[in-house]
Amino acid sequence: MTDKNLRTLAKDYSEGKLNKDGYRREREKLLAGILAGTIEVEDNHHTTFLDTSEQEHAIPKDSPQAEEHRFIPGVSRSNIFPAQNLYLVGGAVLVVLSAVIIVIYMLIREPESTFKVDAMINTVPAITEETYIVPDTYIIEDLIQRFIQNNDWSENSRQAFLENWETLSPEEKEQALALPISNQLANLIYEQLIEQRALYQLGDRENSLINQKILVDFAWQIGIDDPRITVKQPEQPAPIETESNGETTVAPGQAAESSQDELTIFAEPPDKSGEQEPAVETKGEPAVTAAEPSVTVQQPDPVRTAAMAIKTQTPVSKYACYPSLARQRKPYCRDNLGELGKGPTLAVIPEGKYLMGGELENEQPVHEVVIDTPFAITVHEISQADYLLFCQDTDRQCPAQPWSDREYPVVNISWDDAVSYSKWLSEKTGMPYRLPTEAEWEYAARAGSQADYPTGDKILISDAVFTDIKELTSPLPKSDRSVNRNKFRLYHMLGNVREWVLDPWNDSHLDAPGDGSARVNGDTNYRVVRGGSFADNMAALRSSAREKLPTNNKDIYTGFRVIQELN
């Protein structure tokens, strides 16, 4: 009799006492022994095979008849108790039938199980080395159930679960994720995310975002696909103050946009999820919240379309940029480049005003800037793929790039190169493209915030790519969504690569225009770069931070983005 059975083996496997290979070997030995007859099937009966009526008629031990029925040496008990012998034979038959039923059940439950039994080689299906043993469903359920019951979210607990999970084949994982208990696990992970988001609102932002990322990674490694399980910064409602002149302002330090949904460009039907747009301060009017459109794709402006048709022979894109997109939930637009394909994706930024500048001397004086008209700005920095079209169309040599993926920002670009690209884009589309002014850039980067960063007085690694704990050696490609966008739906305005703007360098904001236009005076041998790069620390990523570079400078830390005027 063996001290192991299938259930004890399954329990040892789920508790990690047996690995997958060990579980298979022990189970094959057990099944093979049962079939070969070398392992006796345990009989768990605790009473005699006599039924109740038989027991009632059994001879009492102390009765006179008991003496007559004692064993006589050399005489078979069956000759003395023929009726009881019949019951024993029947019991033996039941034992054999039980063993047969168990074997048949195991064969039906695990049709792919493999084992070799020499004594029964002709009765066992042929097997191969590739035949795979699929663990019973209850083993997988037990693995998940134990984790749910323990409700232990420590690193050791998660790691132990993942180690057991990785012993499953892709087919087994798919089978497990189809079980109802997997939905319970997804719900439990979501509940943990809700708790972490609540901590974010209570002020523990850094730990909250780190723990959210851990939970999302845990779900991803398991294979749970649940749109609720994302890193999210809960909306921080900003107090609205009314000034004496009747204008409405949004308090400084307003939190960054909480939405982490995938960037969806040019969706035909509107999204009715009820997401509210950020309040945007407008000159002389209360803060306005964009209304939900009846359709996301706007009807073309006939005047603007006619102007484009005159300037270029390129067909007008139905996703062209219009000022009214600034009030849409998904304000994305994109122009045709004819046979070259599509231009870079832009987001339309609403008009508004803000206080430009900061605490450092070259960021003084802080002054009000009013943006009268919406403008469109590229959602990401111009990528290597974007710039390659320009090089191919103008027969120029593209600069060498340090990263092979064409989704990375194009670098080793001088200010003159960036200006040339924007002029080429204007010629191909018929629309006015250029570098952003320094004031436009800071307005787009702040996205309604007057704090040091769009997220407040501190920026996290979930908000920008910069050197924090360890030195980074590259930015992120635009295909990466691990860093949050700002409230204007723009990625990598801070960090990643610093960006050329239109203005010549000035040592301060003294006499800077207040309408968002570029400075006309200054040292044209140097141009302004904004935003900081992946190699910079947190201080260089402040919304007001400024640097100067020689106009002909080319390095791996500097790229650019462009805007389209929507006058």
Kindly list the characteristics that best describe this protein.
567 residues; alpha+beta; paralog of FGE (formylglycine-generating enzyme); 5-stranded antiparallel β-sheet; 4-stranded mixed β-sheet; 15 helices; 33% helix
Percent in strands: 5-15%
**Count of helical regions:** 15
- Count of beta strands: 15
Global structural class: alpha+beta
Strands side by side in the biggest sheet: 5-6-9-15-10
Q: What is the straight-line distance between the termini?
A: 90 Å
Supply the CATH superfamily name of the largest domain: paralog of FGE (formylglycine-generating enzyme)
The low-confidence runs, each spanning 5 or more residues with pLDDT under 50, are 44-59, 66-81, 110-135, 235-300
* Name of the CATH architecture of the largest domain: Alpha-Beta Complex
Largest sheet: 5 strands, antiparallel
- What CATH calls the topology of the largest domain is paralog of FGE (formylglycine-generating enzyme)
What proportion of the residues is helical, as a percent range?
Answer: 25-40%
- pLDDT averaged over residues: 75
Radius of gyration: 37 Å
Instruction: Give the overall shape, derived from the CA principal axes.
Output: elongated
Number of domains: 3
Secondary-structure map with pairings?
Blueprint: H1 6-14, H2 20-36, H3 52-56, H4 64-68, H5 77-80, H6 82-109, H7 137-150, H8 155-165, H9 170-177, H10 180-201, H11 205-222, E1 240-242, E2 248-250, E3 280-282, E4 285-288, H12 302-311, E5 332-333, E6 346-349, E7 352-356, E8 367-371, E9 375-378, H13 384-394, H14 415-429, E10 433-434, H15 438-446, E11 498-505, E12 523-530, E13 546-550, E14 558-559, E15 563-565
Parallel strand pairs: 11-14
Antiparallel strand pairs: 1-2, 3-4, 5-6, 6-9, 7-8, 9-15, 10-15, 11-12, 12-13
